[in-house]
Design goal:
The complex is a heterodimer of chains A (75) and B (375).
Chain A lengths: L2 E7 L6 H11 L6 E6 L4 H12 L2 E8 L2 E7 L2
Parallel strand pairs in A: 1-2
Antiparallel strand pairs in A: 2-4, 3-4
Chain B lengths: L2 E4 L1 H9 L4 E5 L3 H6 L7 E5 L22 E4 L4 H12 L4 E4 L2 H7 L2 E8 L3 E8 L4 E8 L2 E5 L5 H11 L2 E6 L11 H8 L2 E4 L12 E2 L5 E4 L4 E7 L8 E5 L3 E5 L16 H15 L8 E4 L16 E2 H7 L8 H9 L9 H8 L7 H7 L10
Parallel strand pairs in B: 1-5, 2-3, 2-4, 4-5, 9-10, 10-11, 11-12, 16-17
Antiparallel strand pairs in B: 6-7, 7-8, 8-9, 13-14, 14-15, 15-16, 17-18
Helix pairs in contact in B: 5-6, 7-9
The chains are: A alpha+beta (75), B alpha/beta (375).
Chain lengths: 75, 375
């Protein structure tokens, strides 16, 4: 997996994780993968719904030591 | 124009007083489908906040001109963002302070009625989850039944009333919400009672709530009498207070009856449920006012916001009390049950004292409607 950019959104509360993710993904090219780190638990369902709505793919997601990692491929 | 913060208490007033309100719920669609703020005259629009990040122009035509607009989200963050965007576009809007989290926690104390010798009975209505707790007050003493976990609300209320909490009861081991009963007892030195048949796995000390147990409040003879009424759980117990009120726990609701499957043994308890609803309760005075531990829909609220109805009226109108055929009854309470309440197995374990989750974890467990009834 080729990670084009990493966005550290740890410690940010909703809506900031998705606001920043959207801004970051807007700067990438189609097919690029963005790595996002979040600690806000509410983000889990929202990321899936937002990515789906925008046509992006969550190629991988995991949780390690309380941090959620999303790997989002731009549509 | 302007953004105003609304408290859960203000929203509760709108619900109870049957007022109009337009709610723009910016949570994701699954969350909205699971539960929302219910009001008879409320209008809803659910647009997830992340669909509005580029602006609110698209939804402006859907905003009403003639009623108040409240933006709601899970914890308040997104609703503030969207409210500000709408305000920049020229609208006056409100947002719910603390979001659905604060709605879920909000308790409205409402007086149900008077007891003999100047006593009073209060119902604490948790609109966001449908839980109902009670405090009977008389002669300087109070008894609490089915307290939810916001113990300060109860202890502060007792302080304001100038009464001492002496007895704290749980009608059964709850599966939909975390009980605050034994914590209140610990704080105040009151006795905490739990039906022993529901308490086989608990790890803390409690006083057995046996059939026929009575306590008296203060010097007046307000009697709180326990009556074994299994079926929702094996230990489920009802209370008759002052010969006037029948607290039915989760066995009997205003518009439905309790489900027997939340402790994994539905088949075994159908018989008990039938026995309690069709025989035990039939021996009681019909003018008793039924006060359950939950409500499912706001239609069950009276005009003053209380959830209460005469036993006689329930026998006449409650479908669950009028199924002649026993096989049909069995089928009704075991087939096609709604999904279990969120985290019901974990919540039972917390109520047994075996798990001590953080505040955040407790909030997560209690998300969603109570789902204690058969339908």
């Amino acid at each position: 997996m080729n990670i084009k950019q990493t966005l550290d959104a740890k410690g940010l509360a909703c809506p900031m994780p998705i606001v920043k993710t959207k801004k970051a993904i807007d700067t990438l090219n189609s097919g690029d993968v963005l790595e996002v780190l979040v600690t806000d638990k509410g983000a889990l369902n929202d990321f899936t719904a937002w990515a789906g709505a925008g046509g992006h793919t969550i190629v991988e997601q995991k949780e390690e030591a309380g941090v959620l990692y999303f790997y989002i491929q731009k549509a | 124009m302007a953004v105003t913060a609304w408290t859960a208490a203000q929203v509760a007033r709108k619900v109870i007083e049957n007022k109009e309100l337009f709610i723009l719920d910016v949570r994701n669609e699954d969350a909205f489908k699971d539960w929302k703020i219910d009001g008879h005259k409320f209008e809803y629009l659910n647009i997830p906040y992340f669909d509005l990040l580029d602006g609110v122009e698209e939804i402006l035509p859907q905003m009403p001109a003639d009623k108040e607009v409240l933006v709601v989200c899970a914890k308040e963050g997104s609703s503030i963002m969207v409210a500000e965007m709408l305000s920049d576009a020229g609208l006056d809007v409100g947002y719910l302070e603390g979001g659905m989290k604060s709605w879920s926690m909000y308790l409205e104390p409402i007086k149900v009625g008077d007891l003999d010798n100047g006593g009073e009975l209060y119902q604490f209505v948790r609109l966001g989850k449908g839980c109902l707790s009670y405090m009977a007050i008389s002669g300087g003493e109070a008894a609490i039944i089915d307290a939810v976990r916001f113990t300060d609300v109860f202890t502060n209320f007792a302080n304001e009333k100038g009464v001492e909490i002496k007895h704290v009861f749980d009608t059964h081991l709850h599966a939909d919400h975390i009980s605050g009963g034994r914590h209140i007892a610990e704080k105040t030195g009151a006795t905490y009672y739990l039906p022993p048949k529901d308490a086989e796995e608990v790890v803390f000390d409690y006083t057995a709530l046996e059939d026929g147990l009575t306590v008296n409040l203060g010097t007046s003879q307000i009697e709180v009498g326990a009556m074994y009424s299994p079926g929702h759980t094996i230990g489920s117990t009802s209370f008759v207070i002052d010969g006037k009120y029948l607290l039915t726990g989760d066995i009997l609701f205003i518009d439905s009856i309790g489900r027997p499957d939340l402790a994994g043994l539905a088949e075994d308890w159908v018989g008990d449920l039938r026995e309690t609803l069709y025989r035990r309760y039939r021996t009681l005075a019909e003018d008793l006012i039924v006060l359950p531990a939950h409500f499912m829909i706001i239609d069950e609220l009276n005009e003053d916001g209380t959830v209460a109805k005469r036993l006689e009226d329930l026998f006449a109108e409650n479908h669950g009390l009028n199924v002649e055929d026993e096989e049909q009854f069995r089928s009704m309470v075991t087939d096609n049950l709604p999904p279990q309440p969120n985290a019901y197995q974990e919540i039972r374990i917390v109520n047994m004292g075996k798990l001590t989750p953080s505040d955040e974890e407790q909030t997560e467990m209690e998300i969603g409607p109570n789902r204690c009834a058969v339908r």
